[in-house]
Amino acid sequence: MAMLNGLSIALTPERLDRLRHGTVVVSSQPTAFEITGPGALQCLQGLLTSDVVKAGDDSLTYGALLTPKGMIVVDYWVIRRPQGLTLLAPIGGREASHDLLTRQLPPRLAKAVDRTGDLSVAWLFGDTALGHLRFAGLGSVPEQAGRVADGGAADQPLTIGRPGPAAPFAALLAGSPEAIEAAIAALVRAGATRGDETDRQAARVLAGWPELGAEIDEKTLPQEVRFDEIDGVSYTKGCYTGQETVARLHFRGHANRQLRGLLWRGHAPIENSVVGQPDGKAIGTVRSLLALPDRVFGLGILRREIEPGTEVSAGGRAAEVILLPFGDDQISG
Description:
By secondary structure, the protein is an alpha+beta fold. It has helices at 13-21, 40-45, 52-55, 94-104, 129-135, 177-189, 197-207, 243-252, 328-331, and strands at residues 7-10, 24-28, 31-36, 59-66, 72-81, 84-89, 111-114, 120-125, 147-153, 156-162, 171-175, 193-194, 257-265, 274-276, 282-291, 295-303, 311-314, 317-322. The strands form three sheets. Strands 13-16-15-14-17-18 form a six-stranded antiparallel beta barrel. The longest helix is centred in the middle third of the chain and has 13 residues, at 177-189. The chain is globular. It starts with 6 loop residues before the first strand and ends with a helix.
């Protein structure tokens, strides 16, 4: 497969089955910022699309920082603890995070500390991930989605997070690189399989989850990449940067583009990124690809009027437009 605008990966059926129905753990080095200070919570509430106030202490939420015109700058998983907040973003979001947080946080109320490199994350995938996490003895696994709890050893503390049901992973662990490596070793002893970035990206594609630098670029609005469906935006909280555009689209209009799935039957090189109608009119672009031996899954940004079930020309081959996330019947063939 030639790469398009985003990324292209391939899995064997055995590896896909393990990712979905076993337990796979993948470590990564994210952009990480800690926000502390007497006004940290309220300051972030005025910047992020998600409602970190309503979520309460010991919560895990997803949201983004926007431009004044409502375009996504960088997206985060936000860990809120009584002592402060931790923002976890793709490593490519570090510069933008530093710039925005430095400029927009009042120093007397909130302080942003760059923890990139000091903080690592382990992402857990698969139907048995929570069971293996409990068996590994790393700490209390939150009983509810959207919550975090303490774990690890006294000298290697961890934060254990359980996201909402739409997330592409079952749990996350955040801590020092040494604590994360020790946790992964414990998980492997408990029966988990250590994976890599290919596994993380495959889970993301199947879940229809957008990625900074692929589905999200400098002109992307939250509603174009499923922020409504993945609980990435609140329409009941107070004002935040870019809210006017987001609210206007939600209450008075619609986004002209939407993130959709694409499914190709059979396996052959995808020649280009263009998605077109039978008459040749371009209606979008392919951003990410996941290939199996007998089919290819893709994420594309398409014109909103293109309904799920429509057959289009995508990447130079016939493909079906799919409502995200991909379903079991599509994944299982």
